[in-house]
Write a structure and sequence with these properties.
8 strands, 2 domains, eight-stranded mixed beta sheet, alpha+beta, Transposase Inhibitor Protein From Tn5, Chain A, domain 1, 316 residues, 37% helix
Length: 316
């Protein structure tokens, strides 16, 4: 990241690790920016998706929270850091709301009896409680692991609609059986989906559960385009700061994408988060290089900036 932004590595590391800024204030401001604009804000046709993700750290020895545990991206156990996330998902958009690092019980002196210890279910429940009144959504969606825990009961007792998958039909909620695999990598030949919205049609249950893939897309975009799992800090509070800066960078890209601002400036039309990120970086480089005002051909390497006004303004 330091190389990409032409920044001194040590100064950037200090900014991530030790400089004084309020992580909670950053979270509030980021969501405020998202919710202020219609093109980016949450809507009633969307759902709150809850899931966790792992950042593999196979060679970590002293990184706080990096323990031998189940790692979702690898579908097996590995030394990794785990974060529990809340993401807004809908047919037209998805964006990360929050992510909280998970620390296993053996990180605390009294283990599970330590007052500071929170398991994944408690973190997920607190995320739901924190955002159920501030973010618009019509229900909550989560995978089969969360459905077999007290998290499902927590959502139901709160009077909220949920959609999930479960490995058996022992629950008294409405269920839908789907024959076949989700994709070629799916290990199951059938799926059982459940909901507590008893007047739902089978089509609605399936459509709402499939929105859960929005959280997987978020995880992939954060890791592929914003290096969410490439941190080089050891303490959990510093990892948390790094993760939230990644969410901020993702949000900036999301805001630009949803409002199609690059369409007025570039000849090309970047569509993926990585393409948009590279385009924004190109514009920043273009803006900081006055030599381009004397050689228009150099602009061809910067996502073909077509706006003459933009070129003139940058060169001024």
């Amino acid at each position: 990241m330091a190389k990409a932004t032409h920044t001194d590595y040590q100064r950037l590391q200090y900014f991530f690790s030790d400089s004084r800024w309020d992580i909670q204030a950053l979270k509030r401001k980021r969501l405020e920016i998202i919710q202020k604009q219609r093109t980016t804000a949450s809507t009633k046709d969307g759902l709150l998706a809850i899931d966790d993700t792992g950042c593999p750290k196979p060679f970590a020895r002293k990184t706080e929270g990096a323990k031998w545990q189940y790692c979702g991206p690898l579908k097996r156990e590995e030394v990794c850091n785990v974060g529990v996330a809340a993401v807004f998902v809908s047919p037209s958009k998805h964006f990360p709301i929050d992510i909280v690092p998970y620390l296993s019980a053996n990180e605390f002196p009294r283990g599970k009896n330590d007052s500071r210890f929170k398991d994944k279910i408690q973190i997920a429940s607190e995320l739901f409680d924190a955002y159920s009144k501030t973010v618009d959504f019509s229900g909550t969606v989560f995978d089969s692991w969360y459905a077999t825990t007290r998290f499902l009961t927590h959502i139901h007792k709160a009077g909220q609609v949920f959609y999930s998958e479960i490995k058996s039909n022992r629950n008294i909620f409405m269920f839908v059986v789907i024959l076949g695999k989700w994709n070629k990598d799916d290990d199951n030949s059938y799926h059982v989906l459940i909901t507590n919205k008893l007047n739902s049609s089978a089509k609605m249950v399936i459509a709402n559960y499939l929105l859960r893939w929005g959280i997987e897309h978020c995880f992939k975009e954060l890791k592929d385009a914003f290096y969410f799992d490439h941190y080089q800090v050891r303490h959990i509070n510093k990892i948390d700061r790094y993760w939230n800066l990644c969410l901020t960078a993702w949000t900036l890209t999301y805001w630009i994408k949803q409002n199609a601002y690059l369409a007025k400036i570039l000849e090309t039309k970047p569509t993926t988060f990585n393409e948009i990120k590279l385009a924004v970086n190109s514009i920043l480089e273009f803006a900081s290089t006055t030599a381009l005002s004397m050689n228009d051909k150099l602009a061809d390497g910067y996502f073909k900036i077509k706006s003459k006004r933009r070129k003139k303004k940058c060169a001024a």
